[in-house]
Design brief:
single chain, alpha/beta, five-stranded parallel beta sheet, about 50% helix
């Protein structure tokens, strides 16, 4: 039976980097990336949060099916997954929920470097304006809720090796 570890953070918080490095340290492990699935086609984030952010509105059955296929074959299932225990379909599988607590400004800078390496100043300013208006409230909501539902909270501004070590030490 696998140990299922979910890792959450805001976009640009380091989830992918950390989960990829952590998987290298755990034998017989597999990584499932939330973004590889198309779960949010019917979710409008702003109204979803205003209505109380019911995490069970998300139909996560494709992820559940993949976990079910892997649960008896792998020692560790690592999930890049934003909800910790909040979705009943997936929450019951999770053994350890990790939250990478990355400052919003650091995450925003990482996203600009990652997603917009050739962008003009005007494009970056527009991106930042949209971030402030639409995305930042979503990320703040995540910090205020998911972080405190997690078993382990790790400082996302630490070096990758240190974050992986702290998570690995807690498994």
């Amino acid at each position: 039976m696998s140990k299922v570890i979910s890792i959450a953070s805001i976009s640009g918080g380091g989830k992918t980097t950390i989960i990829n490095e952590l998987s290298k340290t755990l034998e017989n492990s597999v990584v499932l990336y939330f973004d590889d699935y198309n779960f949010d086609e019917h979710i409008e984030y702003d109204s979803w949060i205003k209505k109380g952010a019911d995490y069970n509105e998300w139909d996560l059955l494709p992820l559940k099916k993949d976990i079910d296929k892997l649960i008896d074959r792998m020692d560790y299932i690592l999930m890049d997954y934003p909800f910790a225990y909040r979705n009943k379909t997936i929450g019951s599988y999770i053994d350890i929920a990790v939250y990478i607590d990355t400052p919003l400004d650091v995450a925003l800078a990482r996203r600009i470097f990652r997603d917009m390496p050739d962008a003009s100043g005007d494009q970056i300013l527009k991106y930042i304006g949209n971030y402030i208006k639409y995305e930042r409230p979503l990320y703040q909501y995540m910090i205020d809720n998911i972080m405190f539902d997690s078993d382990i909270i790790v400082d996302g501004s630490l070096p990758v090796h240190d974050i992986v070590y702290k998570i690995r030490s807690s498994i």
